[in-house]
Amino acid sequence: MSQEAVPEQAVPEQAVPAQPKGLLQQMEELMAALNADLSQLDADLSGPRPTRSDGPDAA
Q1: CA 23 to chain centre
Q2: Is the dihedral of CA 49, 36, 30, 24 positive or negative?
Q3: How many C-alpha atoms does 50 have within 13 Å on its Cβ side?
């Protein structure tokens, strides 16, 4: 068995930016994504709620 056919670098270089992002830029992007997620969650929770006919007040 020869290992000549196996490339030396088994893990391909993925998502390596041409210029590394600064920590501040990464934090800003993460905060923006979190803010969007929280806004969507707030909209989902503030939306109309289905009425239940089998609740404790149902007679």
Answers
A1: 18
A2: negative
A3: 3
pLDDT of residue 20: 75
Phi/psi of residue 28, nearest 5 degrees? -65, -40
Reported pTM: 0.47
d(CA 58, CA 1): 76
Distance in angstroms (rounded) separating the CA atoms of residues 36 and 43: 11
Torsion of CA 30, 33, 34, 36, to 10 degrees: 160
Q: Under the phi-then-psi rule, with left for phi > 0, alpha for psi from -120 to 50, and beta for the rest, what region is 15? A: left
Dist. CA 44–CA 5, nearest whole Å: 54
